[in-house]
Amino acid sequence: MNGDTSADDVANNKVLTRQLPTAADAAAIERGKYVAIASDCTACHTMTESKLSLAGGYLISTPFGGIYSSNITPDVETGIGNWTERDFFRAVRHGKGKQGENLYPAMPYNAYVKLTDEDMHDLWMYMRSVKPIHHQVPETDLGFPFNIRLIMMGWNLLFFRNDSFQMDLSKSAEWNRGAYLVEGPEHCAVCHTPKNIIGGDSSKYLQGSNPGEWHAPDITPDPYTGIGLWSEQQVIDYLKLGSNHVAVASGPMAEAVTNSTQHLTDTDLKAIAVYLKQVPASKTIRPPSIAPDTAQMKIGENVYSANCTACHNSDGKGIPNLAASLAGNPGLMADDASSIITTILQGGRGAVTVGNPTSAAMPSFAWKLSDEQAAAAATYLRNSWGNAAGAVSADEVARARAELKLPAQMAGQ
Predict the structure, then answer these.
(1) Longest distance between any two alpha carbons in the chain, whole Å
(2) Which CATH number do you get for residue 318?
(3) How far is CA 396 from the centre of its chain?
(4) Residue 201 and residue 145 share a domain
(5) Which residue stretches of the chain have pLDDT < 50?
(6) Boundaries of domain holding 380
(7) Is residue 31 located within the same domain as residue 88?
């Protein structure tokens, strides 16, 4: 008890004895911090370039509208300071708010349901230990009928499976650890598994999806659009450094690498790589490449030569750990060209990691390129140096430009 506690305070029961964390509590908090990192809580619950860690307000883009993340610090008024551990369990694993309201699956409870009881308790202990931040986040206001949270009852009946993680005893302990991380805390399927018209997972597990302005690529062992040609070490390098021999993490994946995967142990990264290299491959049928002498490809080649070769080189092989290789890049060859369109128009920045702190940035070319030129550049990238994918149209670029609220080509360019 504090030395300045008065007898009257004690008599009136106004001051409670402060209990310091036990060694067991401290160990649980440290384990819970790792669970929070693996679950990538920071990426969604911290506003971009904000110092209000875990205080919410980050706008999550979905096909149904923007959803604001909640304040999950232990602030009593604006966070979860008056929650019980049971309240926390119900929200994280079952998508139920403190008052019993249905949460939107932008909060990936359909993945977090696989978290073990031990990991959940440790996570709760950690969340109680973080700094409370008084920050009222905006109310999520989706359009009708998605603003009616009761409809989530139907969604849950269709797509939520209240199943804990089940080990596959025919697989190694390493494979099972990787499966647990990918299916549970890292919730990779939320972005990388295609969704149906009402946002439920399809059967094409980890075969690529479009949750917003960026396309989350195929991460199955398919050799054409997936990671089939990557070694386990190259998967590890991508998750730890934010880049490997081909790809540089950008957009939402850069946030995931910066906030989450770079901090995982080498053992856990290896387990993830082992698991991903063994999931069923997508078996994508490779289309014929577009001939280089077509009008669009010639325009694309000119755009590339004038604007891109300094970083990506004339052979498309890029600069290791800085500029992505475009030759043989599976992300470029997805049916959905959203990511390359967004990158050309908006630019991007690679993940910042301890192992690769020099994060390269690509400028926006929206002001410099017309829709036709940007489409031609995208088509050229997708069909050069051995790549093969469908053509990108100027209409696709125009739609992306409007959605991203980017300017039209500057006059005189």
Answers:
(1) 91
(2) 1.10.760.10
(3) 23
(4) no
(5) 1-18
(6) 295-403
(7) yes
**358 φ, ψ (degrees, to nearest 5):** -85, 90
Q: Is residue 11 part of a domain?
A: no
Q: Which tokens in the block code for residue 301? A: 């080649």
* CB contact at 8 A, 79 and 73: yes
Q: Name the token pair of 133.
A: 């931040």
Q: Are 254 and 371 in contact (CB under 8 A)?
A: no
pLDDT in tens, 363-393: 999 999 999 999 999 999 999 999 999 999 9
Task: In whole angstroms, give the CA distance from residue 274 to residue 170.
Answer: 15
- In this prediction, residue 356 carries a pLDDT of 86
* 235 contacts 363 by C-beta, under 8 angstroms: no
**Run of H or E including 29:** helix 23-38
Integer angstrom CA distances of residue 226 from 107, 192, 280, 284, 328: 26, 11, 11, 9, 11
Total residue count of the chain as it appears in this document? 413
pLDDT in tens, 35-94: 999 999 998 999 887 889 999 988 887 777 788 899 999 999 999 999 999 999 999 999
